[in-house]
Amino acid sequence: QVQLVESGGGLVQAGGSLRLSCAASGNIFSINTMGWYRQAPGKQRELVAAITSGGSRNYADSVKDRFTISRDNAKNTVYLQMNTLKPEDTAVYYCNVQLTIVGTYWGQGTQVTVSS
Fold it and tell me: Are the CB atoms for 14 and 85 separated by under 8 Å?
């Protein structure tokens, strides 16, 4: 069993910042890629950012230069620092963790709402 606990979502005005966290626990041998996805109402879930075990980062074009993904391997935790938030960033954000052997897991989702 693997559990992912997300935190940090909320309501913020445009131009503000939020930091999301996702901590993995349980039957973890090693973690490969960790990432964040989001899904807005009526839209498909999309990749926001991902970071490999080696530290390589990948971002959606819409969030480049505004969002930063990082990870703390000692804590099995991935973070998403979101700056200069826009109303179009409003969505449910999901943590995604790819584990060696046991597979891929999703967090429960955390709501981010950006008001104009």
Answer: yes
Q: Which of 61, 48, 28 is nearest to 92 (CA)?
A: 48
Tens digit of pLDDT for each residue in 32-91? Answer: 999 999 999 999 999 999 999 999 999 999 999 999 999 999 999 999 999 999 999 999
Residue found under tokens 């445009």: 14
Helix, strand, coil percentages (3-state) for the chain, rounded to 5, are: 5, 60, 35
Q: What are phi and psi of 61, to 5 degrees?
A: -55, -35
Can you tell me the distance from the alpha carbon of 44 to that of 87, in angstroms, rounded to the nearest whole number?
A: 17
The residues with which 96 forms a beta bridge, in sequence order, are 35, 106
Q: Rounded CA gap, 61 and 67, in Å?
A: 10
Tell me: pLDDT of 13 over 90: yes
